[in-house]
Each structure stands twice: as C-alpha cells, then as structure tokens.
Amino acid sequence: MLALHILAVLFSYGVVAGQNPSLARCQNQMRYVCKNYWTKPKSGNVGWTYAEKKALEDYLMKLNAKLEQSVARIEQLEKNQLSTTNNNNNNNNNNNNNNNKWCHSGWRQFQGSCYLYQRAGSSWKSAEHNCVKMKDALNLQNTPHLTSILSRSEETFIDNLRSGATIWLGGSRAPGDRYPYTWTWTDGSPWGYTNWLPKEPNGFNGKGEYYIEKKSQWNDHSDASRRYVCKYNL
Ligand SMILES: [Ca+2]
Q: Rounded to the nearest whole angstrom, what is the distance from the C-alpha of residue 19 to the centroid of ligand 1?
C-alpha cells in the first residue's frame, strides 16, 4: 500500500518537476526518502516498524500536499499571465479603434474634430509646432494643427473653450503678401468663413502681421505670446 502510494506521488512529481525548480527539489527529496526506505538495513526480522512506516507515509503525504499547492499556484499564475496578456491585447485594440472614433483623453470633441485648449502662452510658430508634434506624442492618426474656424457654430465652440482669452488661430499669410491678403489655414482647410474685427485685417504699419489672433473676433497680428487651441480631425 505504502509503496504504491510512493510510486503514485513520484509519478505526479515527475510530470511537473521539469516546470519549476522548487518542484524539482521536492522530487529529489522524495527520491532520497524512498531510497533510504528500500535500502535501510533490516534488524533481524523486524525491518521497518509500523511507526516508522507511518511516519514516512505522513511525511510523504505532507510533501504531496505541498506539491499540489505549488502546482495549483503555478496554474493560477499561468492563468493570470494569460488574462493579463489578453487584456493588454484588447486594450491595444481598443486604443487603436478609439483613435479613430473618439477624441484623445483631455481633448474636447465638436462634430468631427478634437480640440485642446493650451493655456501656456507661445509664439505662433511654436504653438503650431507644439500642436503638430502631439501626433507622435499621443499616437494620433491625424496631425493636430492650430485650430481653424470654418463656421459660426465652430467659433461659438472655440469661444467656450478659450473663456475670454486671446488665442492664436491657424490662419496666416506669406511674408511680403500685399493687400488684399491671401490667408491659409495650417490644417489645409479651404479658406472661407471669416469673422474679422472692424477694419481688420490691416497689416498694421507693415510690421509683419502675418498671423491671426482671435478675441471676440479676428485680428491679424505680428508674432507674440498667445494661448492657443490645437485641433485634429477624427
Ligand atoms: Ca491687425
């Protein structure tokens, strides 16, 4: 009975011993115990006493219990690892999908575009550069630029974002351009809707008013520090 039990335990050790160092150590212990059991010199006709066999069997049962616990723990760890891997894959897929459907975290959505209000003042060129480089930084599908304003409703949305601050828009004209000026949006949108302040754009004193700032309405202005709004299309 005891021998069968030992063989059964050893067999179970052999199945899993190669998977874990601690299990391999257990297996070696078992072999050591069994070897001693079968080779122990017998004293007369007595051999192993019942108490010795019982003690050995108890010892083996405890080892077996520890082994089963170790196997269960390894199986649980493998399940956890598999679950984590699947979740990461799902999250990556979700992120990729969400990049196409939803605005990035912190960006506000209006119709088919996403907007980020930047409170730190920046020159027009730096502001545009800061918007553009967020494509790689945030792993966006489309490139953000300084915001264009293409409709009255979009301007109302931008007004809510800027909360009264003067901001840069993505409109500019080429240096040396003469009146009537040719304005373009950095995001490539066609030029159409405008909301100039009275008597603007005036190219004030020829001081390089190549860029468009927005207050309640628009004004052409030379480069200076302004807050700004970045925009990208979904
Ligand atoms: Ca002006």
A: 75
